[in-house]
Amino acid sequence: MPPKTASAFACSECGWTTAKWVGRCGECQAWGTVDVVGGSSRNGRTAAGPVSSPAVPIAQVTATEAASVGSGIPELDRVLGGGVVSGAVMLMAGEPGVGKSTLLLEVAARWARAGRRTLYVSGEESAAQVRLRAERTGALADELFLAAETDLGGLLTHIDAVKPSLLIVDSVQTIGSASIEGVPGGVTQVREVAATVIGRAKAEGIATLLVGHVTKDGSVAGPRVLEHLVDVVLQFEGDRTSRLRLLRATKNRFGPVDEIGCFDLVDAGIVEVPDPTGLFVSRHESPVPGTCVTVTMEGRRPLLAEVQALTVAATTPSPRRSSSGLDSSRVAMLLAVLSKTGVSLGNQDVYTASVGGARLHEPSVDLAVALAVISAAGGSPLPGGLVAIGEVGLAGEVRPVRGLEARLREAARIGFTHAIVPTGTENLDRVGLKVLRTGDLAAALRALP
Predict the structure, then answer these.
(1) What is the pLDDT of residues 145-201, one digit of tens each?
(2) Which family does it belong to (predicted)?
(3) Is 101 annotated as ligand-binding?
(4) Do residues 93 and 119 make contact, with C-beta atoms less than 8 angstroms apart?
(5) Using alpha carbons only, how large is the chain's radius of gyration in Å?
(6) Is 130 annotated to bind ligand?
(7) Among 5, 41, 33, 35, which residue's Cα sits nearest to residue 20?
(8) How open is the CA angle 401-405-406, to the nearest 5 degrees?
(9) Is 153 helix (H, G, I), strand (E, B) or coil?
(10) Which of 21, 79, 119, 238 lies at a CB distance of 3.0 to 4.6 Å from 164, suitable for a disulfide?
(11) 143 is in an annotated binding site
(12) pTM above 0.70, yes or no
């Protein structure tokens, strides 16, 4: 007599399981994500079955199949850790209109120009629309095959017919399976489509790029298990008021997750920006009050950025504090520290901003923000050719930051001559500029050349 089975329930977001249905997941606290996943044996035993390949000592496993191949776009290869790995599945997410499809169409064209067959499957646009964009951006290639498909079965048929080495699906939320209940984009459909495509990519060694939609808070839409299934999760970011686009990896099984790629969205498509430093620094004929340059670290890449400050007499009992591109809570903390150290800001409206739409949330910009506010309040410009790097504590001390030598080398390469850095840092005699060490804000003002 076969053993009795009972239904099992699992959360589609985190995979938490329970023996009975509940309205709210007990692990991630999400509502309405617990659903039945099938029957499970009462005794929990599973019979042994055939294996796909025998287990061997790890030293005998060949690593040639996992070697990376250049995609033709160095900035993308930089983020991926050297290139695209055969059979790897990558998920790219980003806000609507940021340029995901344009970037992937360029990737497909450069891959195809190298004589490697590419299949681009569009579920959101017709083939004619993609063709027009490819003609505008110069992304036409003989080995680039294009298909407009929204059915999972049809997608698999295209893969069998074309036999590509690179597959791009734009997007995974638009593909549906007729054998699964729910509408395309739903939790069940996305999980089935992703699992099927990933299984085919692993079995046939097809490098795969999936486009994913994002929610209002910027996270990948659909079940959380989708990010666990893929090998690489890429985030494509950009401000609508700026042409600069940043590509970063939040998960990467084949390389680091602290690298970024920079791109410029232009009328003719998207181009790489190997040296984006100048985009975040304005050029003044002579030094002006309220400006200071710092060096941030985006992954492993140092980038110069300029912060600006403006102070005006308050016209209301409560002075206004406004920030753009900076962490407003951290700026408020810095203003409190400055007031404690003797800088009078109680009757002043204070405005702080970054140049070029840069988002500066790293603590290393604290010293630059503080010096910019002091310069604006006193009406005296900081010396030209100066960069300030350091984290400011609540007691007014200036703390060391990581990667200081790489930051200073980048500043020297651009042409800066002086730098104010925290005390207690390593030997910086060979960075190419004059280094002024300081322990607190008062000492930083005294150290200004």
Answers:
(1) 999 999 999 999 999 999 999 999 998 989 999 888 778 887 788 888 999 999 999
(2) Belongs to the RecA family. RadA subfamily.
(3) yes
(4) no
(5) 27
(6) no
(7) 35
(8) 100
(9) helix
(10) 119
(11) no
(12) yes
